[in-house]
Amino acid sequence: MSGLFGIRLLLLLWGCGCLWLTSPTSAALVIFEDTEAPEETTGAATQLQKRSTNETMPQVEVHSVTVDCTVTSRYAHTVITSVALNRANSSKEIFFEVELPKSAFITNFSMEIEGKVYVGEVKEKEKAKKQYEKAVSSGQTAGLVKASGRKMEKFSVSVSIAAESNVTFILTYEELLQRKLGQYEIQIRVKPKSLVHQFRILANIYEPQGLSYVDAQATFLSNELLPLVEKTVTDKKAQISFSPTVEQQRKCPGCDGTLIDGDFIIKYDVDRQGSLGDIQIVNGYFVHFFAPPDLPRVPKNVVFVIDRSGSMSGRKMAQ
Q1: The dihedral of CA 253, 257, 263, 264: what is its sign?
Q2: Please, what's the largest Cα pairwise distance for the chain?
Q3: Does residue 222 surpass a pLDDT of 60?
Q4: How far is CA 9 from CA 127, 130, 143, 150, in A?
Q5: In terms of C-beta density within 10 A (0-12 exposed, 13-18 middle, 19 or more buried), how is residue 128 classed?
Q6: Quick one: which of 76, 26, 45 has its CA closest to 206?
Q7: Cα–Cα distance measured from residue 176 to residue 73, given in angstroms and rounded to the nearest whole number
Q8: CA 214 – CA 230 distance, rounded (Å)
Q9: Band of the pLDDT at 98, cuts 50, 70, 90?
Q10: Sheet harboring 48-50: ordered strands across?
C-alpha cells in the first residue's frame, strides 16, 4: 500500500538563497497532501507527536531519533533524522517539530516514504506566500518556521501516512558558532515526549587551531544518565556521544514518561596561544579568527531601567 499519495513538498524561501531563521515571518515550509476532510492542527513544543481517534492506542510510534552534528573551524553542520511508524490499520497524521537556534539556517528538508525521497522546493517570496495561503485555506496540512523563544525558532511539519507505513524525516541546518563569554556553544534541543527505541546524539568537533577544553552537559541529565555522556578529546578533535536505551529513558520503572526533555549543550574553546589568531583560506576566500587573551577589560557603564507602565501592573510590579 502506498505510504503517501500525491505528496508535494514546497520549501518556501522568501528572498534569499537559503532558509534563514532570523525572523518568524521571513520563511515558511509547506508539506501537504490533498485530503477530503481537513483537520485542524495544533502545534506543541515536541519533536514528534501523534494524532489518533483512539488516544489510548499506541498506534503511532517514534522508532528512532538521531542528531548528528559536525563542527569544523567553528562552523556546525547538524542533521536530525527521525523515523515514525504508523501501526494502525488506517492512515494517521504524524507531526515533526524541532527547535533550532535563531542563528541557524536550514539547508535541506526531506522525507523518505517506502524508499522514495521527497525533497523541499525553493520558491520566490511572493509565490511562496500565495501558495502557502492557498494551502491553508483549502485545508491542507502545512509546516511553518516560527518563533518559540528568545534563542530558538520552531520548525513544524505534519504529514498523513497510510496504514502500516513509516516515514523518515531528515532536517539539515547549519550555523556559524559565535564566541560568547570566552567559549563556543552548541545547543541541541531534544523533546521527543515519548520513549524512543533508538535515540542518539553524536557530535564531532575539529579545530585546526587546537582545543583548549570541551564540556558537555544537559538540563535533563540525572545521576543515572550522566555516565552515558561519552567524551573523547585529543589535541584538535573531540567526539561527544549520548545514546540511552529505552529503559534508561524512563522516568520510572514501567512508566511511559521520558527523562529526555530539554537542552543538550556542548561548550568548547580553541587554543589561543598564538597572538595573531588563526587564518584560513579556501577557494580564494579567507577568514581571520582572533581573540587576544591578554587585552585589558574595557570599562562599562550599566544603566538599570524600571518599567512602571500599565503592562507591569499586578504581580510584575510587586516583584
Answers
A1: positive
A2: 69
A3: yes
A4: 14, 15, 10, 29
A5: buried
A6: 76
A7: 9
A8: 12
A9: confident
A10: 48-50, 92-101, 152-161, 143-147, 27-32, 8-13, 122-123
Instruction: Copy the grid coordinates of residue 100.
Output: 533550532
Find all residues with CB under 8 Å of 163, minimum gap 6, and list them. 1, 86, 88, 89, 90, 91, 92
Helical residues (DSSP H) of 203-272, grouped into ranges: 246-249
- Tell me the C-alpha distance between 230 and 105, whole Å: 28
CB 240 within 8 A of CB 265: no
Q: What pTM did the predictor assign?
A: 0.69
Number of H helices, E strands in the chain: 3, 22
For residue 291, give the nearest of 270, 271, 277 by alpha carbon: 277
Scored b (16 or more CB within 10 A) or e, 155-192 reads bbbbbbbbeebbbbbbbebbbebeeeeeebebbbbbbb
Which residue, chain included where needed, has cell 540525572? 222
86: number of Cβ within 10 Å: 24
Tell me the three cell numbers of residue 177: 558558532
Given 3-state DSSP classes, what are the helix, strand and coil percentages for the chain, each rounded to the nearest 5?
10, 50, 45
